[in-house]
Amino acid sequence: MSDTTGRTIFLDGEEVPFERDETIFQVAERHRKEIPTLCYDDRLDAFGGCRLCVVELEGARNPVASCTTKAEPGMRVTTKSGSLEMHRRVLLEMVVSENREVDVDELSGYASQELKTLVDRYDARTGRFSGKTSGTSRPDDPNPFILRDYENCISCYRCVRVCAEQEGDYAITVMNRGFDTQITTEFGGLLKDSSCTFCGQCVQTCPTGALGDLKALRFAEVEKEVEKTRSICPYCGVGCAVDIMTKGDQVVGIQPAMDGPANEGALCVKGQFAFDFVHHPDRLKTPFVRDDHGQLVPATWDEALDKAAAGLLEAVNEHGRHSLYAVASGRAPNEAGYTLQKLVRAGLGTSYIDNCSRA
Ligand code: SF4
Ligand code: SF4
Ligand code: FES
């Protein structure tokens, strides 16, 4: 239960309560203030790197980063003013000047449009700044999942932090500082030679598309709108929520649902990248049964179920009920798992049943 007793700040003149340890940004977000961010991901510890979220604090000499400043009783905070908007615009102009590209494809990743959206909102493509660019891309990394296009990197470190704090992998880190800042693996090697599990979380949190979803980007040239359909990953029993991206009838990619109760934006390599089976020519779309010559031939569901029932009964009659062992699929819903154990226990008379989700 939240406890805001005696804790209030003044947010754009309005007195509002806050909870212990809340930052100014969290209080402001709850009160629907639009404060721009780039290095912020609410699943991660605040970092305070981009300074886009600055607000004015009465009594402070300079604007403060709202994502790292804790709310204190009596604070008087201004979230929007002419000088704050100017500050944000100049910051964005500078970010634009040191990156190769702002308009990355939306298939790049869940957060990939954040920089583009802010740059457009602040009309920050002025070209007033020019000079050195930062980040060196790694087109030599042959992994089939993750584009490493660091010439679009803004050094927000979200990728490094999500890899460490969410995935616990510490596969990538930051090398050097300033214009020489580089996101890298240990000894600058390939991702496959690091402790990377190819979970894709760094891709999905990257606000610029510097890290991109290579599998989804295969469909970038298809001239159809991207549609997203909320679903549940079919692989195991955890039940991670996903948004399936389609162009027409083609599944083009998967994005984790940031509000998925079981995964909160996380996926494993299978849920994230292994969706090609949907359109694979070898995919089974009808049951098969063996004919009298042992060859698999297409059948109707009734034929297949009759054949399976006859085979199970034959095994029980010949070898006894404990000759059977059932494994429920982790892809099946609870109800199907329940029905299978009922069939095995009550119908066939054995308790030899397990579920692959235990693995
Ligand atoms: S794919 Fe996952 S494990 Fe690999 S670097 Fe990105 S966050 Fe880390
Ligand atoms: S690669 Fe993306 S997430 Fe990582 S630091 Fe660069 S911009 Fe941020
Ligand atoms: S969002 Fe607060 S400093 Fe980047």
Q: Describe it for me?
A:
- The protein is elongated, with a radius of gyration of 27 Å.
- The protein has a five-stranded mixed beta sheet with strand order 2-1-5-3-4, covered by helices on one side. Strands 10-11-12 form a three-stranded antiparallel beta sheet. A two-stranded antiparallel sheet has the order 6-9.
- The protein contains nine helices and 16 strands.
- The chain has helices spanning 24-30, 82-97, 114-121, 158-166, 201-205, 214-217, 269-273, 301-319, 334-347; strands at residues 8-11, 14-17, 54-57, 64-65, 76-78, 146-148, 172-175, 182-185, 211-213, 227-232, 241-247, 250-256, 288-290, 296-298, 326-328, 353-355.
- It has three domains: 8-80, Ubiquitin-like (UB roll); 92-279, Alpha-Beta Plaits; 288-358, no CATH class.
- It is α+β, with helices and mostly antiparallel strands and 359 residues long.
- The protein binds iron/sulfur cluster (SF4) (2 copies) and FE2/S2 (inorganic) cluster.
- Residues 162-163, 167, 169, 171-172, 196-202 line the site of one iron/sulfur cluster.
How does the SSE layout of this entry go?
Layout: E1 8-11, E2 14-17, H1 24-30, E3 54-57, E4 64-65, E5 76-78, H2 82-97, H3 114-121, E6 146-148, H4 158-166, E7 172-175, E8 182-185, H5 201-205, E9 211-213, H6 214-217, E10 227-232, E11 241-247, E12 250-256, H7 269-273, E13 288-290, E14 296-298, H8 301-319, E15 326-328, H9 334-347, E16 353-355
Parallel strand pairs: 1-5, 15-16
Antiparallel strand pairs: 1-2, 3-4, 3-5, 6-9, 7-8, 10-11, 11-12, 13-14
Bound molecules: iron/sulfur cluster (SF4) (2 copies) and FE2/S2 (inorganic) cluster (FES).
